[in-house]
Design a protein that fits this description.
- The structure is a homodimer.
- With about 160 residues, the first copy, chain A, is mostly helical.
- Chain A has two domains: about 5-85, Winged helix-like DNA-binding domain superfamily/Winged helix DNA-binding domain (Arc Repressor Mutant, subunit A, Orthogonal Bundle); about 90-155.
- In chain A, about 70% of the residues lie in helices and about 5% in strands.
- Chain A has seven helices and three strands, in the order H-H-E-H-H-E-E-H-H-H.
- Chain A has helices at about 5-20, 25-35, 45-50, 55-65, 90-115, 125-150, 155-165; strands spanning about 40, 70-75, 80-85.
- A three-stranded antiparallel sheet of chain A has the order 1-3-2.
- At the A-B interface, helix 1, helix 5, helix 6 and helix 7 of A face helix 1, helix 5, helix 6 and helix 7 of B.
- The first copy, chain A, binds a DNA duplex (30 and 30 nucleotides) through helix 4.
Amino acid sequence: MNLTDQQQKFIHTWGTLGTNWGINKTMAQIHALLLISEKPLSTEGMMEVLQISRGNTNMNVRALVEWGLASKEMISGDRKDFYSAKKDIWVIARQIAQQRRKRELEPVINALKELKKETPNDEQHKELLERVNDIEDFSIKVDSMLEKFVKSDENWFYKVLLKLV
Amino acid sequence: MNLTDQQQKFIHTWGTLGTNWGINKTMAQIHALLLISEKPLSTEGMMEVLQISRGNTNMNVRALVEWGLASKEMISGDRKDFYSAKKDIWVIARQIAQQRRKRELEPVINALKELKKETPNDEQHKELLERVNDIEDFSIKVDSMLEKFVKSDENWFYKVLLKLV
DNA sequence: TTTTATTTTCAGTAATTATTGAAAGTTTAG
DNA sequence: CTAAACTTTCAATAATTACTGAAAATAAAA
């Protein structure tokens, strides 16, 4: 299989986006490839197109499945596993928001909660406690918005936008 | 100068958060340090507390200033430069949203626009074009929300939340 | 101006993160 | 069951990213 310049550019752009936001480049690139692929792809297919190793492919496909962005497809008459990506941008965004919240936000919020418990309320910790409290308040609000986003349908977003006008 | 365990933990947590989201760990840690510091700090002060080199300190303080998260303070009777961070979590969030949008979102959106222009509208590029169009539509909407967020005051957020109930 | 204090830069190096590939594990067909 | 097809794991290695420290540049004081 061979990609056109445009397809390669899309994959490259998506990979860079991933890298900039702390996502493995290969994971983002496989995602991009699946996003523009009409049919499910096998590990071999991805390896060939992206010029990456079997191990790399396997690990990052697994990550995509764990993130709920791709899923295994059975193709009758073939023993290989095939994978395809969810294509609805709304579903994708929700899925990513949900996962990043769980992985890269919740642990921080919990650590700050812990921290607050064990911090004496003295002069030396005045600034720290103010900051932690502010961050907690803020994150509760953002979190509640994110939660609504994650559980929403596309409609929700339009409604919010309209109300903001 | 010496930090308590709690202060160190805060700095560590903030550094990890940065790393997970594609921000230099030291940059995030200096930010955290300034956030919980009552008075402006000199380069020496930060170097000592965080145990990092002059060069590293200098580069990351500059980055914080460029991001609009910290600013130089003149302290009379001292030739050194001192720095302090903005402490309002709302201002911080807006500043970060604005900067990340400019640095890590706009270039992607522009690349996709370019890509769309140069992609032939044929069978081979059907999926690609659908995806790019979807992403563009989506990002316009998110962008408009982000813009409102960036230009908003805290009040805006509460209003939105209330309307969502 | 010269000297001293301070900041900036950046080539070299260290630390971290990502990738490979072959061996071990698993599944399916015969 | 055995063999072949395929997938997974992970130690070794490569690639990337971050950090250091000393030299160069700049700014302030004498």
